[in-house]
């Protein structure tokens, strides 16, 4: 302990560490009525870090070659000590990342935190969601199983519905007419280099914006729940008399992360196979389409939307519109009220939208 | 001029090729609707009177149909040419005579033919002994199983007593084979490396199948005991996998428990800061 | 003050749990990164005797590193590690002088692996070799 104090002292006289701690940790005050939902961002950071570490470990044995990829993954799963654990953590973790991201978004939606002046926070968050979906999609191909191969075929195929340039885009994405070794090469580069770097950078922007605007206070447990930002000048949202980030809220973050870990590890150890249909363990065969190929659960609604419209282009357009609407929500919903129960129209739309998404996903799963 | 018109023709040819190629590419997603719709045998026979159309219906339910073994694979002939489909010059064999049946089937089932010919059944060929179809049926040939040894079939020639004893001797082994097969399949489903186990079981199953045409009870008893020992070895390997799975679940329970404990401790620590 | 004591207790508990968790994470990662021993052990290299005439050498992979077989003048067979004892480069065969030369710093070895010249501190390691029914086996 004394050694640590000395080290801190040593650092302090050089870089004034005390001031940084006072400003960013102990003096960084959060609203008193802050709730557990606010810790989902930290959980997501933790998941991302875990994905990066497990991903780097997998890179040691994975071979990004269409002839060897499947065997290399099978070797990781069966021969390399604890390879199964690291692979399962990575695969289950990707699903968890999407799940927690959706919960994070929902909490922001219900607490009205996306409203001005936090439009950019919402927008960067939305782009992060898209990037996470992209990294999941590209990672899905890498084991080169039947599931990988055909899910990627179906997913890239849907781009073909875009008029005029659709077919070109499909071939550009695949690096050829069909999903093949070239697709693996480019998906691998995207998955391990470009998209992770993009996600890391955007997380930086997301946090920078959060720090500049100040954290929003939840609309619960107070009488005045409307938004007072006028938009005339920059205003940092302070919370005088609030709780310090360190140690108070950091402990809540750690509690949430531990709870998440318990859930995550339970899936990893007891039933990771909810995310692995048996086609995931059969090597890719471009000449044999397995029956009932389905995308991952978070793409099921998109998949079903494409199927229910008579033409793919309409299905694609509807999805595009829905996504654009969601991305631009803070610019469309400009009301001052933030409490969900005082926003009946918003609540109805959100709940119905959510039910529609769940319904389409279930329909997609069973169709 | 001449040169020009030729090149124009060539142009047309290239275009046609392109269109054809495009059509083939377009047609590819719908895979060729299996061999059966292409062969003329079925097209014709399905519409003939009962006597000639029955084999078609029977065959459709057979393991041969399931594996894409069509009429011509046994009966010969040209399945693509309506007029010459049954021309002996095109290799058409027609219906084999009673004594020719084992050789007819044995063209593919080589090992089985050998086993059959060496058995009491095979030695009685042409002396009112049974042929392949006596037990397996014709056209509607299903996957061989011990059910083929039954009182009705066997007692049409001799008493069932000995056949029943043979069946009883084989039943336990068959059940073991099936059970082990299912366990391996379950591990395969979750990505375990079952290659070596599958190969082992395949070899053992083949060894078991060579007994199917043997009617020597003592030999069957000895062999099935040896085969059961082989299966037990595979079962032991599976038991080791079970053990590894149980260990992993224990470690998992500890990890989940530790996480929950950490959550509780963090919660309590948080409570001390008011 | 009661809070203080409680914090210290919880801190110790969390510290212990954290140490256990670190072990639980680092052990699998360490095992994952450790090359599996016994992977290459027990492997032998063999070739037909007639493919190695007098004065010829054969380089091959043995137990994960380079090795070489020499048939000396007079027919005697020697199997050596081809890794130079100086800095680990792979020695080359100099047919004219019937000796091994390391291309890195000019170390020279005889066909028995003995250092003839240059910086190498030790002879090349000898490997067990046997001949049976016209087949040479190393290992």
UniProtKB/TrEMBL annotation, chain A:
CDD domains: Cytochrome_b_N (cd00284). It is found in: Membrane. Residues 235-367 form the Cytochrome b/b6 C-terminal region profile domain. Residues 7-219 form the Cytochrome b/b6 N-terminal region profile domain. InterPro entries: Cyt_b/b6_C, Cyt_b/b6_C_sf, Cyt_b/b6_N, Cytb/b6-like_sf, Cytochrome_b_N_euk/bac, Di-haem_cyt_TM. It comes from the Bacteria. The keyword Electron transport applies. Keywords: Electron transport, Heme, Iron, Membrane, Metal-binding, Respiratory chain, Transmembrane, Transmembrane helix, Transport. It is a multi-pass membrane protein. PROSITE patterns: CYTB_CTER, CYTB_NTER. Pfam families: Cytochrom_B_C (PF00032), Cytochrome_B (PF00033). The chain crosses the membrane at residues 36-63, 84-110, 122-142, 190-210, 257-276, 313-332, 344-366. PANTHER family: CYTOCHROME B. This is Cytochrome bc complex cytochrome b subunit. It comes from Pelotalea chapellei. The lineage of its organism: Bacteria, Pseudomonadati, Thermodesulfobacteriota, Desulfuromonadia, Geobacterales.
UniProtKB/TrEMBL annotation, chain C:
CDD domains: Rieske. Keywords: 2Fe-2S, Disulfide bond, Iron, Iron-sulfur, Membrane, Metal-binding, Transmembrane, Transmembrane helix. InterPro entries: Rieske_2Fe-2S (IPR017941), Rieske_2Fe-2S_sf (IPR036922), Rieske_Fe-S_prot (IPR014349), Rieske_Fe-S_prot_C (IPR005805), TAT_signal (IPR006311). Pfam families: Rieske. The keyword rRNA processing does not apply. Residues 44-138 form the Rieske domain. PROSITE patterns: RIESKE, TAT. The chain crosses the membrane at residues 9-30. Its cofactor is [2Fe-2S] cluster. This is Rieske (2Fe-2S) protein.
């Amino acid at each position: 302990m004394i050694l640590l104090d000395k080290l801190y002292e040593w650092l302090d006289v050089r870089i004034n560490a005390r001031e940084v701690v006072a400003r960013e940790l102990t003096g960084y005050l959060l609203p008193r009525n802050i709730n557990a939902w606010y810790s989902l961002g930290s959980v997501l950071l933790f998941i991302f870090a875990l994905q990066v570490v497990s991903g780097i470990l997998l890179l040691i044995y994975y071979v990004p070659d269409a002839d060897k990829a499947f065997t290399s993954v099978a070797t990781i799963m069966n021969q390399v000590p604890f390879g199964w654990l690291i692979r399962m953590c990575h695969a289950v973790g990707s699903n968890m990342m999407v799940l927690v991201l959706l919960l994070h978004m929902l909490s922001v939606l219900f607490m009205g935190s996306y409203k001005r002046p936090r439009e950019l926070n919402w927008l960067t968050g939305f782009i992060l969601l898209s990037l996470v979906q992209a990294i999941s999609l590209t990672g899905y191909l890498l084991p080169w199983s039947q599931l990988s191969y055909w899910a990627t075929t179906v997913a890239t195929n849907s781009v073909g519905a875009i008029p005029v340039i659709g077919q070109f885009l499909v071939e550009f994405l695949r690096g050829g007419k069909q999903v093949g070794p070239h697709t693996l090469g480019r998906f691998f580069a995207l998955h391990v280099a470009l998209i992770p770097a993009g996600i890391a950078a955007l997380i930086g922007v997301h946090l920078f914006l959060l720090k500049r605007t100040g954290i929003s206070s939840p609309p619960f447990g107070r009488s005045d729940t409307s938004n007072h930002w006028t938009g005339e000048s920059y205003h940092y949202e302070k919370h005088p008399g609030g709780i310090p980030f360190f140690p108070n809220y950091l402990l809540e973050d750690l509690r949430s992360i531990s709870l998440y870990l318990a859930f995550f590890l339970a899936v990893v150890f007891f039933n990771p196979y909810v995310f692995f249909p048996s086609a995931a363990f059969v090597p890719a065969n471009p000449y044999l389409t397995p029956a009932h190929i389905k995308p991952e659960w978070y793409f099921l609604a998109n998949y079903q939307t494409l199927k229910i419209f008579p033409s793919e282009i309409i299905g694609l357009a509807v999805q595009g519109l829905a996504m654009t609407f969601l991305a631009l929500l803070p610019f469309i919903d400009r009301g001052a009220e933030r409490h969900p129960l005082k926003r009946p129209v918003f609540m109805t739309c959100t709940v119905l939208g959510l039910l529609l998404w769940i319904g389409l996903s279930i329909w997609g799963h069973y169709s | 001029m001449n040169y020009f018109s030729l090149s124009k023709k060539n142009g047309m040819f290239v275009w046609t090729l392109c269109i054809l190629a495009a059509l083939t590419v377009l047609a590819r997603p719908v895979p060729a609707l299996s061999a059966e719709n292409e062969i003329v045998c079925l097209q014709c026979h399905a519409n003939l009177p009962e006597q000639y159309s029955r084999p078609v219906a029977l065959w459709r339910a057979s393991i041969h149909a399931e594996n894409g073994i069509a009429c011509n694979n046994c009966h010969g002939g040209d399945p693509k040419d309506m007029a010459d489909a049954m021309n002996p010059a095109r290799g058409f064999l027609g219906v084999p005579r009673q004594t020719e049946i084992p050789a007819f089937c044995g063209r593919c089932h080589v090992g089985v033919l050998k086993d059959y010919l060496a058995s009491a059944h095979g030695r009685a060929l042409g002396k009112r002994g049974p042929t392949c179809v006596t037990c397996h049926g014709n056209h509607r040939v299903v996957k061989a199983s011990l059910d083929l040894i039954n009182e009705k079939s066997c007692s049409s020639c001799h008493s069932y007593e000995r056949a029943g004893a043979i069946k009883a001797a084989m039943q336990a082994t068959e059940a073991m084979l099936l059970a082990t097969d299912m366990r391996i399949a379950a591990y395969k489903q979750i990505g375990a490396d079952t290659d070596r186990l599958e190969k082992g079981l395949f070899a053992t199953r083949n060894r078991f199948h060579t007994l199917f045409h043997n009617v020597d009870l003592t030999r069957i008893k000895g062999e099935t005991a040896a085969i059961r020992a082989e299966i037990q070895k595979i079962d032991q390997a599976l038991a080791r996998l079970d053990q590894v799975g149980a260990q992993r679940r224990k470690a998992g329970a500890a990890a989940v428990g530790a996480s929950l404990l950490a959550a509780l401790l963090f919660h309590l620590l948080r409570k001390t800061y008011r | 003050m009661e809070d203080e004591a409680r914090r210290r207790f919880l801190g110790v508990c969390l510290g212990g749990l954290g140490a256990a968790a670190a072990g639980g994470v680092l052990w699998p990662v360490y095992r994952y990164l450790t090359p599996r021993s016994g992977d290459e052990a027990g492997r032998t290299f063999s070739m037909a005797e007639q493919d190695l005439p007098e004065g010829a050498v054969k380089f091959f992979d043995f137990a994960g590193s380079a090795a070489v077989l020499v048939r000396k003048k007079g027919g005697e067979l020697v199997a050596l590690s081809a890794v130079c004892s100086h800095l680990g480069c792979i020695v080359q065969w100099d047919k004219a002088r019937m000796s091994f030369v390391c291309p890195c710093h000019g170390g020279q070895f005889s066909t028995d692996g003995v250092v003839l010249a240059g910086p190498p501190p030790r002879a090349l390691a000898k490997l067990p070799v046997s001949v049976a029914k016209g087949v040479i086996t190393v290992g």
